[in-house]
UniProtKB/TrEMBL annotation:
<dbReference type="InterPro" id="IPR004808">
    <property type="entry name" value="AP_endonuc_1"/>
</dbReference>
<keyword id="KW-0378">Hydrolase</keyword>
<feature type="binding site">
    <location>
        <position position="256"/>
    </location>
    <ligand>
        <name>Mg(2+)</name>
    </ligand>
</feature>
<dbReference type="GO" id="GO:0046872">
    <property type="term" value="F:metal ion binding"/>
</dbReference>
<protein>
    <submittedName>
        <fullName>Exodeoxyribonuclease</fullName>
    </submittedName>
</protein>
<keyword id="KW-0479">Metal-binding</keyword>
<dbReference type="InterPro" id="IPR005135">
    <property type="entry name" value="Endo/exonuclease/phosphatase"/>
</dbReference>
<dbReference type="GO" id="GO:0006281">
    <property type="term" value="P:DNA repair"/>
</dbReference>
<feature type="binding site">
    <location>
        <position position="155"/>
    </location>
    <ligand>
        <name>Mg(2+)</name>
    </ligand>
</feature>
<feature type="site" description="Transition state stabilizer">
    <location>
        <position position="155"/>
    </location>
</feature>
<keyword id="KW-0464">Manganese</keyword>
<dbReference type="InterPro" id="IPR036691">
    <property type="entry name" value="Endo/exonu/phosph_ase_sf"/>
</dbReference>
<feature type="active site" description="Proton donor/acceptor">
    <location>
        <position position="153"/>
    </location>
</feature>
<feature type="site" description="Important for catalytic activity">
    <location>
        <position position="226"/>
    </location>
</feature>
<feature type="binding site">
    <location>
        <position position="153"/>
    </location>
    <ligand>
        <name>Mg(2+)</name>
    </ligand>
</feature>
<feature type="domain" description="Endonuclease/exonuclease/phosphatase">
    <location>
        <begin position="6"/>
        <end position="256"/>
    </location>
</feature>
<feature type="active site">
    <location>
        <position position="109"/>
    </location>
</feature>
Length: 265
């Protein structure tokens, strides 16, 4: 089997001070995808610069202190690629993929957007380009007999079951009709599977992000915006999927929780 985990660390230097290093030392994951690293490789704390047992690939953003993705794998990647051949976004620290034997694993940090602003327009441009990439990625993988999983913070809740207060958020970035329709395309014409939802079709959540404001975490007033989106062959081999929600608010090292899936290999 292979165990894949994805988590938005909300700044890896801050997370390292709150428990991320200890979590990484205890995880049984074979691959860990990170988002919102917000650090150059030379800015990493010493305990994260050399990770015994891990091969680390970092893709920081050109804009200092923003975005940034990474993939840690127990085995050395056969290939790594930053970006998806996008002149606008390849240096934005939002996409990285590695090839392992028979499997491509990608870490995605999709722009969050903000209704009525340039940030939302940027998100829409990213989504349009990325949908094309997803289609090509799956076609290439299928031709080569490979499977694909795109892990990360997709910054869109797909269905009402994916956020606590969905009625109040229908005009908010992350739950707009056009964003949800785009995910329909990812899971439709592009041919991918939402692995966690496939394993838990009838439940609310499981949420992966809770605002630090108010008592969102204590009340489990969250959003499910972190996904593992896989090619059908790999998705069919998924046996368990869990959100590693901290036991208490004080034990959180990010406003997101790791999403961990076990795939039969």
């Amino acid at each position: 089997m292979i165990v894949v985990t994805s988590v938005n660390v909300n700044g890896i230097r801050a997370a390292a001070k709150k428990g991320f290093v200890e979590w990484l030392g205890a995880t049984e994951a074979d691959v860990v995808c990170l988002q919102e690293v917000r650090a150059e490789a030379d800015q990493l704390p010493p305990e994260l610069r050399d990770l015994p047992g891990w091969h680390a690939v970092w893709a920081p953003a050109a804009a200092k202190g923003r975005a940034g993705v990474a993939v840690l794998s127990r085995s050395e990647p056969e290939r790594t690629a930053v970006g998806f051949e996008s002149p606008e976004f390849d240096n934005s620290g939002r996409y990285l993929e590695i090839d392992l034997p028979g499997l491509t694993v990608a870490s995605l940090y999709l722009p969050s957007g903000e209704v009525g602003t340039e940030r939302q327009e940027e998100k829409e441009r990213f989504m349009a380009e990325f949908l094309v990439h997803l289609g090509k990625l799956r076609e290439r993988a299928a031709a080569a007999g490979r499977e694909v999983v795109v892990c990360g913070d997709w910054n869109i809740a797909h269905r009402p079951e994916d956020l606590k207060n969905w009625k109040a958020n229908q005009k908010a970035a992350g739950f707009l009709p056009e964003e949800r329709a785009w995910l329909d395309q990812v899971l439709g014409e592009a041919g991918y599977v939402d692995v966690v939802r496939a394993l838990h079709p009838d439940r609310t959540g499981p949420y992966t992000w809770w605002s630090y404001r108010g008592r969102a975490f204590d009340n489990d007033s969250g959003w499910r915006i972190d996904y593992q989106i896989a090619s059908p062959g790999l998705a069919a081999r998924a046996t368990t999927a869990v959100v590693e929600r901290a036991a208490t608010h004080a034990e959180r090292w990010s406003d997101h929780a790791p999403v961990t899936v076990v795939y039969d290999h």
